[in-house]
Amino acid sequence: MNDLCTDIGHISLIKHGEQLCGDHVEVINPSDNSTVVVLADGLGSGVKANILATLTSKIISTMMANDLPVEDCVATIAATLPICKVRNVAYSTFTIIRIIDNEEAEIIQYDNPHVIMLRDGKNYDYPTISETIDNKVIYKSKIPLKEDDTFVAISDGAIHAGVGMSLNFGWQREDIIEFLETMYCSDFTAKTISSMLINECNSLYGGEPGDDTTVCTVKVRKRKPVNMMFGPPSDPKDDSLMMSLFFSKEGKHIICGGTTSSLAAKFLGKELDVSMPVYVDPEIPPIAKIEGVDLVTEGVVTISKVLEYAKDYIKDNELYTQWSYKKDAASLIARMLFEEATDINFYVGRAVNPAHQNPKLPIGFNIKMRLVEELSECLKQMGKRIKVSYF
């Protein structure tokens, strides 16, 4: 058992003129320290390719998660997928990355561009053996893991980017490796790496992808807990209990809400500093300060903005350019939760703030509860481990 975990981020471009992507990524976590990631590229494009890729990725990931051999997976795929009447073949290419106990990576590849591995920010030529299964050449690798090892799986749309346009022969795997090495930063999340690479592919395609293109990044990193307290408890008698549990937790601490901040300052015996902030954003309430607390912010308005960023992050990550550098409260929280944290503990007070109640909604509806539930769900989809405690 170690303190490593996997950070997974993937993003796709749909072939120009199509409605559905012919690539599909499936992620399964059979245990806390094991992960199975499958990137499948269906034959052709559009609806048929989407069905082929979705079936392939779901079948393989489920079977691999149950420790079935790759031979059985390939045989099942061959027997299950429908035959294309035009090409008279039925298959989807696939890449499997299985992380075992956060100690070893097993990579299984069939007809997709080979996975690129970065170690210490540089390309790492991992060992590969080939094996023929049902007349298909499968490449297999097993690699002991180190912190910050990064695996980048791509569909063939990535290496076809720019063919006949900005590049004569497309963007070769070697070119992609050079791009990744040049832009590498150990602080980048898997999603950020995938987004940067897919944006470059889209640029080479001139904004009109000639093929479905998918990038899926798996990064091995240390666990980093972040704790967030949002709102005072419904019973004032629980103030000390909530504060004690919150501040006893390892990791960074974020406090959201004016009343909550006052209670925390009193508990710590420190001053709540609400003097003129250094950075002002007209849309986001300013930041306060308490000695010993990493970040002190307003509540509902700030978290609503964080939720907006979170919903975008798990889709196309288009708002990354906004929150990745700004110093307002919502951007700082977004960076701590999306990029730094692997484990997030929410401490949520159930005290009702009359200012947050909408008379058109059922009595008892609490905006805080909805925000926490939706934000927690988004963070889970990012691969974070979430625990929510109510008071």
Biggest pleated sheet = 6 strands, antiparallel
**What string gives the helices and strands in order?**
EEEHHEEEEEEEHHHEEHEHEHHHEHE
Q: How confident overall, as mean pLDDT?
A: 90
CATH architecture name of the largest domain: 4-Layer Sandwich
Strand line-up in the sheet with most strands: 2-3-4-5-9-8
Described by the principal axes of the CA atoms, the overall outline is elongated
Structural Rg: 24 Å
Structure in words:
Residues 361-365 have low confidence and may be disordered. The strands form 3 sheets. This protein has a 6-stranded antiparallel beta sheet with strand order 2-3-4-5-9-8. It has a 5-stranded antiparallel beta sheet with strand order 1-11-10-6-7. It has a 5-stranded parallel beta sheet with strand order 14-13-12-15-16, with helices on both faces. The chain contains 11 helices and 16 strands. By secondary structure, the protein is an alpha+beta fold. The chain has 2 domains: 4-222, PPM-type phosphatase domain (Phosphatase 2c, domain 1, 4-Layer Sandwich), CATH 3.60.40.10; 225-390, no CATH class. Helix 8 runs parallel beside helix 11 (367-381).
Provide the fold topology:
Blueprint: E1 4-13, E2 23-31, E3 34-42, H1 46-65, H2 70-80, E4 92-100, E5 104-110, E6 116-119, E7 122-123, E8 129-133, E9 136-144, E10 150-154, H3 156-159, H4 173-183, H5 190-204, E11 213-222, E12 225-230, H6 239-248, E13 252-256, H7 258-268, E14 295-297, H8 300-313, H9 320-323, H10 329-340, E15 343-348, H11 367-381, E16 385-390
Parallel strand pairs: 12-13, 12-15, 13-14, 15-16
Antiparallel strand pairs: 1-11, 2-3, 3-4, 4-5, 5-9, 6-7, 6-10, 8-9, 10-11
Helix pairs in contact: 1-2, 8-10, 8-11
